[in-house]
Amino acid sequence: MGSALPLGDSAPSDGLLPASAAVGAAQRDFGVYLHVPFCRVRCGYCDFNTYTATELRGASQHDYAGQAITEVQSAGRILTQSGVPARQAATVFFGGGTPTLLPADDLVRMLEAVRSTWGIAPGAEVTTEANPDSVDAAYLGRLADSGFTRVSFGMQSAVPSVLATLERTHDPERVPLVVQWAREAGLDVSLDLIYGTPGETLVDWRTSLEHAIRQAPTHVSAYSLIVEEGTKLARQIKRGELAPVDDDVQAEFYELADDLLSSAGYGWYEVSNWATDDAHRSRHNLAYWRSQDWWGVGPGAHSHIGGVRWWNVKHPSAYGDRIRAGDSPAAGRETLDAATQEVERVLLLTRIREGIPIDSLSPLRRHEVAGLIADELIDAKAALFGSIELTLRGRLLADAVVRRLLAD
Question: Is 4Fe-4S there in the keyword field (predicted)?
């Protein structure tokens, strides 16, 4: 979640949604995202809406769980008053920032608020992100005992020099330990990796991939490093202190990741994600790609209900002021028309393995698909089976197109 908020219409102070948001809601999954905007240090590449202790300016980590719980409770009332049918949460995701900088009891309280407001569906996926140096065995056990099912560790790299460039604080040798603790607690484990760091070599990247595979997580994410304007990393590159990120080299890194992970038994299912089997895909992230419904809690968090999208005020202090005043923390919103929803559906679904059924496209979109096949962005054989499935080259291009559009 980038730190810059998009432009949009003003959001009403009561947070109520238009009637269109309720149409078809019973046929869509509902998820909850809880943003915890705190980090011990700010990594030089990071453009997420996060804050270190010196950047809080009037906000307090101690107060945060209570504020998030208030938004969850308010969200339940808003959806009911807007005529959106009640649905249990199919997925819950704690992201950041570093959610595990908060005490485990705070995360448990926030999860309990979701449970008491909407209920949590049987077999729901409940995930928290964590840094390897932000948890211990007791912390992970507390989460597992309270209904968490999954933890996503920000490993990023196994090479100390790469971690230093990224300004990550953990020791790569701690990764096997936290994975073991999580597994002993009964949690599924995902490892997040970043490739294309200035100075990183293919040998470095192979080392990181092999180190991750040895831990036998059920899920691996591998994201290309994006140099965001305004970050420390962007300034270092502009001053010539670090080499610029090379797109062709990043493509080689991606191909290596796909080769090694596939050989180790991981199946690719989304541009940047691999899992041991379909049951261990990230269902929460898939809900984003499939344009399902979710409520985003916290500063800068984004929500989407039935084609209505909105985003909260950015700073934790402004967020806290809104919550204490009993107002919606939404800073702006937009209601997508049918044409925009179709374009987004095509862009998002072509990121995942199953692609998109060709017969679900309008005649114009089908003509455009024919052009994509001619340009080898997709596997022409897929047309025989009635859906678009991306080749390796197509995955990279789809990722680049979607990132560019979302940034515009």
Answer: yes
